[in-house]
Write a structure and sequence with these properties.
Elements lengths: L10 H7 L7 E4 L2 E4 L4 H21 L3 E4 L3 E5 L5 E4 L3 E5 H4 L8 E2 L5 E5 L4 H15 L3 E6 L6 H4 L6 E8 L2 E8 L16 H6 L7
Parallel strand pairs: 4-7, 8-9
Antiparallel strand pairs: 1-2, 3-6, 4-5, 6-8, 9-10, 10-11
Length: about 210
């Protein structure tokens, strides 16, 4: 008996068929996948949205900061993906060029942030490749629980924020830990430390 082949969705089909409820969904390898997040995870993302928004307003920067933007990427096999970064920073000029469009973008956004959860390899490997391929200028991986392997975090494993900057089409990374100030090219005057980001999860208060 020949197994039934499930039709792989395009990005456009994903946008049309994505469930219209409170869940968060991505297009991964042609399938709609629900992406769950803990409250601690959402606390970190919310903290970064507020921090980026304050900096945008303080300096009058041309950015829109959101946590509900779907980005069209392409994986190494040339397959369309629909990614939803935990935090997205997009040029205001780009965003407002068509205000009647929906929240999905196909152009490179300025900054994408992924807050790590149990499927951490997606962020460290797959999304890293896709965001680099798309041309996103800056990509943060926020490993506030120190979940990734020692190959990334060292030994002993401690929470870290990795900042990847696009240089000549390739990401160059910098790892920040503890009281390190996180250096951002998109927000050069930002004064956030890794400890502040980790504390925003509220885990210490449980």
């Amino acid at each position: 008996m020949t197994p039934t082949q499930v039709k792989q969705l395009t990005f456009t089909e994903f946008l049309a068929q994505s469930p219209d409820d409170a869940g968060i969904y991505e297009l991964v390898d042609g399938e709609i996948v629900q992406v769950d997040a803990t409250r601690a995870h959402k606390n970190v993302a919310r903290f970064l949205v507020k921090s980026f928004n304050r900096e945008t307003e303080r300096l009058g920067l041309d950015y829109i900061v959101d946590k509900d933007i779907v980005v069209r990427t392409v994986n190494k096999n040339g397959q369309e993906q629909g990614r939803r970064p935990d935090v997205s920073v997009v040029s205001g000029s780009l965003w407002n060029a068509n205000v009647f469009d929906y929240g999905a973008v196909t152009e490179p956004i300025s900054l994408a942030v992924e807050v790590i959860s149990t499927n951490w390899e997606d962020d460290y490997v797959d999304k890293l490749d896709e965001y680099q391929r798309l041309g996103i200028n800056e990509y943060w991986i926020v490993d506030y629980l120190a979940i990734a392997s020692r190959a990334y975090l060292g030994n002993p494993k401690i929470p870290a924020v990795f900042v990847y900057n696009l240089i000549d089409g390739q990401y160059q990374s910098q790892r920040y830990t503890l009281s390190d100030r996180i250096v951002s090219q998109i927000f050069p005057e930002l004064t956030l430390t890794v400890e502040q980001v980790v504390s925003s999860s509220q885990l210490r208060k449980l």
